[in-house]
Amino acid sequence: MEPRTAPSPVASADAAPSPRAEAAAAAWHAKPAAVVLAALETSPDGLTDAEARRRLAQNGPNELASKPPKTLGAMVCEQLGDPMVLILVVAAVLSALLREWAEADIIFAIVVVNAVIGIVQERKAQSSLEALRSLSAPTARVVRGGAEEILPARELVVGDLVMLDDGSMVPADLRLLDTASLRVQEASLTGESVPSEKDADAKVAPGAPLGDRSTMAFATSIVTGGRGRGVVTATGMGTEVGQIAGLLEGDEELDTPLKRKLASFGKLLTIVGVAAALAVVAIGLAYGRPFVPLLLLAVSLAISVIPESLPATATIVMALGVQRMARHQALVRRLPAVETLGGATVICTDKTGTLTENRMSVVRVALGPDLDRGTAQEPAAALAAHPALFGDLAFVAALCNDASFAEGEAAPGAAGSGEAEGERGPADGGRPPAADGAAADAVIGDPTEGALLVMARDIGVEPAALRASYPRLAERPFDSDRKRMATVHERDGQVVAAVKGALDGLLPRCAFVMDDDGPRPITDDDRAHALEVAARLSDEALRVLAFATRALPAVPGDEEDIERELVLVGLVGMMDPPRPDVRAAVDTCRTAGVRTVMITGDHAATARAIGEELDIYRPGDLVVTGEELEEMDDAALDDAVRRASVFARVSPYHKLRIVRALKHDGEVTAMTGDGVNDAPALKAADIGVAMGITGTDVAKDAADMVLLDDRFTTIVYAVREGRRVHRNIQKVVQFLVADNLAEIVVLLAAVALNWNAPLTAVMILWVNLATATLPALSLGVEPSSRHIMEHPPLRAGTLLEGRQARRVVFQGLFVAAFALLAFVIGREAGGDAVGRTMAFGVLAFSQVLRAVNQRSDTDPVWDREGGRNPQLAWAVAASTALMLVVLLVPPVREAFGGAAMDAWQWATVLGLAFLSLVQTEAAKAIGRWRARRGQATAGLRG
What three-state secondary structure class fits 711? Predict the structure, then answer.
């Protein structure tokens, strides 16, 4: 990975780097504030207006760049460049030159319809950068020339001094100069659900991950508490979010497996079509036949090669799958994503908001008696065992707290709210709806403090009412040195202090511990037990807070130390809990041969604990951190992705490398995520899956599919539906190609035998479109097998697997033989016109009948374990009716170059068509017999 560097604010792009430019290339987060100010040629009073204007003119505005969208002409050229479409275009041009206007019009219409469908889909795809741009802060508080002013954020330049306060959005990347209890929500960049505590004076290593750079504030993140001042180190595309925009811009639109298979299939058909057409012309000329009729026959042959209805049918089959998935809360933005899901072998999932609920929750409580035993309980058990002590804990937790409920408001990002995580969620804690889908109260403030309010409310303590009864008389705000916060209240005529903080900072200040009988002096054993419980909770990746209280003689003065001789009330352990239904979904994916990999910006211990709880991480798996990944070359990473189930503390570029390594290893990769940091990997994956409730607009627009309910279980349904669509497209291909192969064989055989053409181009088009499209569509909605999630994903590199391809060849040859036989019989009885009509009838009716037994490659036509398909019956009836119109209505029949048939000829046509059904069922029976024989042989060997 190339190091990210900020350009010098004063040197031009092509000037030789100055010492200050070299200083600017250093890691800002690791340098002292004074050095940063000197390197950026600014001061504590900020830039002058003249210098700021000069830098703005030189480096451009603080906004994200975008590339021009693909033009309509480029999209048309891309659509017409498909090999199958090129054959149709050539055939249409030749038909027009030969004045076969009906054929030319029909072929051109097919080309136009397919091109329009493709262009409409592409028009909807490219909007990720617009969403990123919408995240930019509109204004910023800036100090210039010693005076504070409010400016449009786009006018910021490197070296500007920016003021931050509670609720503001960071307008550019900043090296912090001063901080006062500053906390910034960076979940959309780092994946961490807890706001980051910032400290301008902290010592940070140059190679520290993004989430550990406590001296920096990054563009588009949200201030959730405190205040700060920082100098701009990067603007626009130079910011961290700009780096993500660059990754999105630089990552090419990758083909999906379906596109690759269709392209491969199209090339094969192109080769077959060109070879067959040349063979027809060569053989015909060898027989001395006129060139123009041979050219018409070559056009017919080219048309017969192309299954004209396949692109449109595949699109409609996927669109129907999209509708079914939308009813199950999965919104597909790009049609090929439906089929791609069916072949997914790895799901790379973000942790926060995807596997977890994206809200902090109290999951363990240890009160005084619990500390004696060195244990911690679930909140419900602790309440039942020690109700009075739990009430004391809730008193301290609710009063020593700056968060609040936004009464009556839905959770941020809830359906219909129109607010994404990147817009409001981080500012108010990003708390999603409750797990059961019911609306939850929004938390304004720090998510950790919000979790304490929820704990208090869950036991019947209403925070707002408690605060009204016991107003705050004094306070000692939290700071990173003390690691504590204290508030003062009057309770029952007594002034009391409520204190919370990290145990290592609070325990030395405790002189007593609260038991069921009241406070008692704390002992060394009590301290050891408390530290032991806290260590155990930390090992479970829980965030531990301690709570204490103290009676005061009076309201203290500003300088009075109130955080001494405290009474330790208890500890709580908090975490962003896993969604309750995720483990079962992970197990279902494993049964289906789909591996789940967690990729998160959170700490390794937290990620591993969540992975173990959800059965993603198992003994023997690797946990790889971003620092370790940074040291790996591509070969080492290729090996790591085979064995790792958890990646922690990773950057957006790391996610891209992981996804690309998996794809290089032959995996079909799905990537789930919700934050800005997930967008590049979402776009690079075979299928990107964004969260609909907690997801940012950037993630949604970069994804192929959006989960409207944010539930991992919806992915399981989507994979099932994807497999159904993939299998049904295979059925459609088998159904269409078998008849195309029959048409090719019929025409080539006729030329080889020096016969007149047994089919006209219009007849071929009618069979390929009118009698094939409706049955093909009905096969596309075929119900899935009950066991579809009990076998590994399909890894075939082509549309048809080996057995399916052989089955198509045999079916095509049998139908061709029956059609040629019908042509000979008809020609002998009534001339070429009757022969063409009989061959036409055999091809069309055999195709309609084969639709019935195409529902399964193994089950007989009368026994389908997946369920009924009433649409197929209607399709067969409609196609039969259309065919009867062509064969029975004289004007229509004459337009197709056909002739009337007598009863014996009708019986011959229908009998030969029925034999194709018999042949297919006989092949299935042989296959079932071989399978049973193989199982019996294996049983004997075992």
Answer: coil
Q: Crossing angle, helix 582-591 and helix 712-752, to 10 degrees?
A: 30
Q: Which residues contact 581 (CB under 8 A, 6 or more apart)?
A: 711, 712, 713
pTM over 0.90: no
Q: Are 608 and 617 in contact (CB under 8 A)?
A: yes
Residue 579, both tokens? 């969604």
Nearest to 143 by CA among 222, 76, 232, 221: 232
DSSP helix/strand/coil, 173:
strand
Q: How far apart are CA 433 and CA 5, in angstroms?
A: 40
The number of helix segments (H) and strand segments (E) in the chain equals 34, 25
Task: For residues 631 and 557, give the distance between their C-alpha atoms in angstroms, rounded to a whole number.
Answer: 54
Known catalytic residues? Answer: 350
Which residue in 238, 62, 57, 19 sits closest to 151, CA to CA? Answer: 62
Distances (CA, A) of 880 to 852, 855, 873, 883: 13, 18, 11, 5
- Look at residues 126, 190, 668, 617 and name the one whose alpha carbon lies nearest to residue 426: 190
Residues 703/689, Cβ–Cβ less than 8 Å: yes
- Judged on CB neighbours under 10 Å (0-12, 13-18, 19+), 236 is buried
Place of tokens 């399909």: 794
Closest to 420 in 3D by CA, of 495, 358, 341: 358
Q: What is the DSSP string of 564-591?
A: SSEEEEEEEEEE-PBPTTHHHHHHHHHH
Beta partners for 227? 180
Averaged over successive runs of 10 residues, the pLDDT of the chain (942 residues) comes to 34 33 59 90 90 91 72 73 69 73 71 70 47 52 88 90 84 90 78 78 86 88 84 89 68 55 72 81 84 74 67 72 82 75 87 79 91 89 92 94 68 30 31 36 78 92 91 85 88 91 92 92 93 89 92 88 93 89 89 90 83 92 91 92 91 84 90 75 85 72 81 84 84 84 87 85 78 82 78 68 80 91 92 92 91 76 68 89 92 86 94 88 79 62 48
Torsion of CA 288, 293, 295, 296, to 10 degrees: -150
